[in-house]
Amino acid sequence: VSRFEGVTMAPPDPILGVSEAFKADTDEKKLNLGVGAYRTEELQPYVLDVVKKAENLMLERGENKEYLPIEGLAAFNKVTAELLFGADNSVLKEQRVATVQGLSGTGSLRLAAALIERYFPGAKVLISSPTWGNHKNIFNDARVPWSEYRYYDPKTVGLDFEGMIADIKAAPGGSFILLHGCAHNPTGIDPTPEQWEKIADVIQEKNHIPFFDVAYQGFASGSLDNDASSVRLFATRGMELLVAQSYSKNLGLYAERIGAMNVVCSSSDLAARCCEVAVIQVKSQLKRLARPMYSNPPVHGARIVANVVGNPALFDEWKAEMEMMAGRIKNVRQKLFDSLSAKDKSGKDWSFILRQIGMFSFTGLNKAQSDNMTNKWHVYMTKDGRISLAGLSLAKCEYLADAIIDSYH
Ligand code: PMP
């Protein structure tokens, strides 16, 4: 007998488990709309040209494989904060941001969760209902209590703004409010600029700490600056905030595990010195938390980002490639809407699909209907009704529309 027999079976991951089931399906009509990974029109994985160019440069330079410092590659940390806040933002000029390289978005969120657990004992994190499936796991494993704020309104397939504001107001003062910087996952519904202002008002009133998860910068609108406007709005108000970043989607660096954790400290202190000390202290503690977890982060992805963002020619090429990717998703979104509207004779209004942004569409299909999509139509998707449009081609839109209409009615 094994002493590990008492280790019970863990349930499959609701997102990555979908890919495993997809692999096992032998039907040639099968379609994987589970995980949010960009595919070409031929449904093949895509390595960006700028990434290949940056890797060639790296190879030519013959860079070594020595350990990075605990906080990561300095050139990466500099450009990642600039990409997020804008290079001329006062938070950077005043050196109010502690930035450390993280293990992509997930690892950066986990590091921040560890900071909250250690320095804000008992503080609660408020997460949107629904949210990306891993958020709850991250805070559970870090032993950080969380609860949900209303976000999605099934009646309008839109934002429950009143509910969201009421729940943020009702949370104990000094809570952390987790916000998706852009392209909310799984709903694809973002607050408008006016709504962001009101959200910031309530968070300030209640002395909460905004905690942004930015996993899709550039993927919502196709513009890196537009997609950072929510974070910049909060930063410009002089608020303290946390921001996790990921380069999985926008640079297609999924497996390189490259991202960052940024902590912005306040400017409202009369003594600027307080803030300076806070930044240094926060950074020291993030390093202290990272060291026993993974010691120091991997270098390859950090160098790619530093080369792409730090080189004006490559940066421009990246923006063009990102517009191409975001554009392809928009085309598929339109085609799916057109196919559904043409085929569905029930009179259902499908325009919510066009109002959603980013990689995903939240179809409103419930669990049983999502099961029908998979079991009958071989369309793999998460059970919350989310489909990844990044895994869809124009050629497959009609088939998908048939599957959705059959499952709905
Ligand atoms: N946050 C959200 C909302 C996400 O959708 C994702 C990716 N699916 C992540 C964070 C993190 O992904 P990664 O760890 O690959 O950067």
TrEMBL record:
It catalyses: L-aspartate + 2-oxoglutarate = oxaloacetate + L-glutamate. It holds the Pfam family Aminotran_1_2. Residues 29-404 form the Aminotransferase class I/classII large domain. One of its GO terms (molecular function) is pyridoxal phosphate binding. One of its GO terms (biological process) is amino acid metabolic process. NCBIfam families: PRK09257.1 (NF006719). PANTHER family: ASPARTATE AMINOTRANSFERASE (PTHR11879), ASPARTATE AMINOTRANSFERASE, CYTOPLASMIC (PTHR11879:SF46). In eukaryotes there are cytoplasmic, mitochondrial and chloroplastic isozymes. This is Aspartate aminotransferase. It comes from Citrus sinensis.
